[in-house]
Amino acid sequence: PNLSLYSMEQAFLLGMEAGSGNLDTAREAIAVYQRFIALDPGYALAWANMAGLQWQLGEQDAAVKSIQQAIYLDSNVWQYYMNLARSTIWLWATQKRQTGHMTPFCS
Q1: Are 31 and 62 contacting, i.e. CB atoms less than 8 angstroms apart?
Q2: Residues 84, 65: Cα–Cα separation, whole Å
Q3: Is pTM, for the whole model, over 0.90?
Q4: In the chain, which stretches have pLDDT less than 70?
Q5: Which residues, other chains included, contact 35 with Cβ-Cβ below 8 Å and sequence gap of 6+?
Q6: pLDDT of residue 32
Q7: Could you tell me if 50 and 30 are in contact, meaning their C-beta atoms sit under 8 angstroms apart?
Q8: How many CB atoms lie within 10 A of CB 20?
């Protein structure tokens, strides 16, 4: 049996608990996701779930990289693209508030 899936299940359950706002549990869930990903780096859902937890902790750059990895691994899940788009819009709006202008991602 694939014992790494036990880590995935544990991370998922911790992530559900973190949804109530428990940041310590979110950190713990990320650590478990990272252990799972080290064993099974091709599991897109793990990357996507970890991205949500990273975002919750204010780790926006890491969250964007994680959701991009999920898209790379499974480009057929539209929800991944939606999360990346929302993240990008939020980052642009934050940049505009802080600097008064937005820098394009590509030129």
Answers
A1: no
A2: 9
A3: no
A4: 1-3, 101-107
A5: 7
A6: 94
A7: yes
A8: 8
Question: SS3 for 51-101, per residue?
Answer: HHHHHHCCCHHHHHHHHHHHHHHCCCCHHHHHHHHHHHHHHHHHHHHHHCC
Residue 99: both structure tokens together? 């600097």
The confidence score (pLDDT) of residue 91 equals 82
The token duo for 87 is: 């993240």
DSSP state of 105: S
Residue with tokens 């299940």: 9
Residues 59, 94: Cα–Cα separation, whole Å: 14
- Is 87 in contact with 65 (CB distance < 8 Å)? no
pLDDT at position 2: 60
Only one residue has tokens 């802080």, namely 98
